[in-house]
Every structure is written in structure tokens, then in C-alpha cells.
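Morning. Coffee machine broken again, so started the prediction first thing and wrote up yesterday's gels while waiting. Chain of 141 residues, entered below exactly as on the submission form.
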Amino acid sequence: MSMGYIAAAAVVIGTAIQGYSSYQSNKGQAEQANADAEAQKARGRLEAERIRKEKEKTQSAARAALAQNGLDVNEGTSVVINDTIEQAGNYDANMAEITGYNSSQRLNAEASVYKNNAKTALAVGAANTVSAAGGSKGGWK
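Came back before lunch.
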């Protein structure tokens, strides 16, 4: 085997490795983006749950303070205060869930781009490998 064939084989192998490496890299990034998307959704749900628990504590503290001052907690201003806390707490909890979901959607879109890049890298790598093989010293014999 002559040095020319060895050099040509090295070019072909190098081209194939480069294409596969790009494929693997993009595939790994897609998997990481998907994992990050799931984590963002979970983080949003956990934050919403924390907010709801805090809302309940705030409502309890407000009712206790009103009752301690001799007010009826089931009518008038007491109900308005309770409803205001309920509305604000639910709004914040829902916004936390929505924010987590929106972040996860952005990461899912990013994962989709990486998946497409991986497929493209595989196809381009194969084409470049064939091209390198065909272009080296008149092709394989």
C-alpha cells in the first residue's frame, strides 16, 4: 500500500469521525435541552405549590388576626381580605406554572433544532465521507 492510499484513507476516516462527532454532539445537546425542559416544568409546578401553601398560611394568619380583634371572619371586610389573598395567591401560582411551561416550550424548541442539526450532521458527514473516498486518488480500487 502506498503512502498516497494511506493518506487518502486517513482523510476518509477523519471526515467520517468529524461527521459522527458532530452528530453525537448535537444529539447530546438535544437530550440535555429536553431534560432541562422537563426540569423547568417541574420547577414551575413546585413554585406554584409553594405559593399556594404560603397563600393558605397568609389567609390563616389574616383570619386569626381578625378574630383576635373581635371581627366575624365570615362576613364583611374579613371576606374581602380573604378573597383578595385567595385571588392574588392563585394568580401568582398560575403565573409560576405558566412561566415554567413557557420556559420548557422554549427548551423543547431548542431540542428540536439540535435533533435536526444531528440528522443533518449525519447526512452531511456521510456525503462528505463518500466524497472524500471518491476524490482520493481516483477512488477505491
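Residues 134 and 140 are 7 Å apart (CA to CA). Going to sketch it on the whiteboard this afternoon.
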